[in-house]
Amino acid sequence: MAFLMLSTSMLRILRWLDDHPASLESAWDVPRSISLEGIADGIGVVRSALFQPMSVLEEEGLIMTRQAHVIGAGRRKRKVVHITQNGRQVLHDSGEEVSQRPSRKSSNLKGQVPEYTNLHGRTDELAQLHEAIEQGAPIHLRGMPGIGKSTLARSLIQTLAEQGVQVHWGQLDAYCDVHEAMQRMDIEAPQILDSEGYVSLLKDQEVFLVFDDVHSISSRHQTAFSNFFKSLQEQDVPFLLIGRDRDTLSIEGAYVELGPLAYDAAIELLNPELGDERSFIVETLGGHPLAILLYDDSTPLPETDQDVRAYVEQVVLGDATSEVHEAMSPFLVLPFPVPSERMPNPDHVPLLDEHTLLRWGAKNSSMEMQHLIRNVCKSSLDEQSVDELHLQAIHHWQQKDDALAAILEMHHRIQRGEEEVSVHLSSRANELMHAYSGAFATLLDEALVNESDDLALVELAAQHALNRAEVDIAKEYLKDVDRNQLTRIRLQIAQFEGKKGVMDDIESMLNSIDASDEKLRIQMSVVSRSIDDMSTSSSEEAFERIDRLLGQIELPNDENNRQMALTTLVVMQHALAIERGDFEGAAFLIEQLREIAPSSDPLIQYLEVKTELKSIDPRSPSASLVFKNAEHTASQMNQPLYKASIYLLICEGLADTQRPRAQLLHDQIEIQTIESMETPSARRLLAKWWEVKSMFDDQERVFALREAILRYRAVGCPNRARDLSKRMHQL
Questions:
Q1: What's 211's domain CATH number?
Q2: Is this model's pTM higher than 0.85 or not?
Q3: Percent of the chain predicted with pLDDT > 70
């Protein structure tokens, strides 16, 4: 076939398929992009527009079709299409236009970048976006669901990537916080509490950030995202916000409003065989891209004066079979995209995909219902029907034993308004706090709307907020709670803020606690935090206060609990002796522990190494051997907190004399393991990790100090935080 005989539609199909390797012809699993639905999405036309040109291409031997399993689209095989070698040759010989087309793949595209889709029209809007980038202002891309915002943004970033800009794309939802957004965008960094830390990492890089669906950010995380976006703006990090609402988080910038497609561009979405009828279809559907793509020539068109929502409700959904409606049901209450295989019936996915009802995420790894379709369909259901859908979802997700399923189960329980949902949230708290911190925060916030008087729920929400260094949010949760309740949380807030006279308040609160077990637990926590908060500027009065607190601790009568408490008490006394420089006293306390535990106990080994490292002069002749022995002991330890603590002590000792070695050891610390522990001691150790990082990492010194400061405040160590603040301001 000569090139001139190829229609525009045929060329588009061949171009699309040419980007896929020949090896897929024999593959068992193939990407959705070579299915009929994937090709239609990719070149931006209704599926029926493929039939005639593909028929000709197959007859001429330029493409071939077969049945194969499409990744992420259920177990049923689907029709897929491959370009033949002859087809590739014809395309290669077709002329300059084809050879100059941009590649959809780029190493500069990071994160949840949607699949490339051919852009029809939008020349003016694309020019507006490029102009806004030149001006350096944040960009707001606005428009109703299905109008083509993501398609336009995808075309924009393709150009940027080809120019050498590294683009990061993240799709947001109500269960996403700033840290989760950074993960979705493939911005690699240790877990950061201070969102400005991410800005520090990005400000000197040639990057462009895209935040999709910003309208879905929950009220729980709005302030954090707003502050984050403002920091990006202040540091001239360019970014694009895609959403439905004009005013997004009070971020000033350039606005690009996306309306219906122009007539000529809208026509291109339809099957050319429809001829002059295309004009009437475009006019009737108001140039709305999704409405046009949903059009099926077997169904009637709406009245001219009907809006898109009415068309979807009365025509698209009204004409759908009972099987389609059944397949849609689980998606109507799905809060965010999930992999298709996680849904109750994955085999329903191809059916919905064939009807253009699904919205696919990056690399087609997850999907959800088109927002316009979901909103219209859900609005037609009564409360009982919606409740039944939530109940069915609970039954499905509670059978799965992973954190994602737990988040979804909790979401549906909260949406049903179930009582005592705090029991379910508490049972998975430790797991969810770490795995999905932002999502767990949103769930707690939503649950409190229904159960604002549940003290256990308030305490859990406030504690999680404090773990995230969100003290203002924690205080907000407690504003309607009696001052005599939730003492433990109030103590943490007091320590976090570190105001003058805070210790007097703490002692007063401790004296008001009657329950001996609760009082002992809180006393131990306060003393441990206070010792970790000691610094070079600590006064003798501070030491005396801790001595007084230690003296007020009453050991329990129960022998087993008494021994555990006594061990903890001796360990804290040892830490205090170290801070005082009383190494003989520290050694004596270790000997006392030997009477309780065997010498092979990891705790005793740890305390011995700690004492030796704190007492040695790093510049003395014997220091090298001490550091070497300490490193060897740490490498043999299975207890991650002890191991990390020793490594950090070694790093501190080597920071001035052997910086490269110190940095190497610091890099070897399994920080993710410490993060996953979610205990007060682990969180304090994380703060220490960031502090030590600032000692030898010149490029990230301020960033590391800022993160350490925030973490020390979050764990109730305000004195350490103040000392580091002084150090940071001196840089």
A1: 3.40.50.300
A2: no
A3: 93
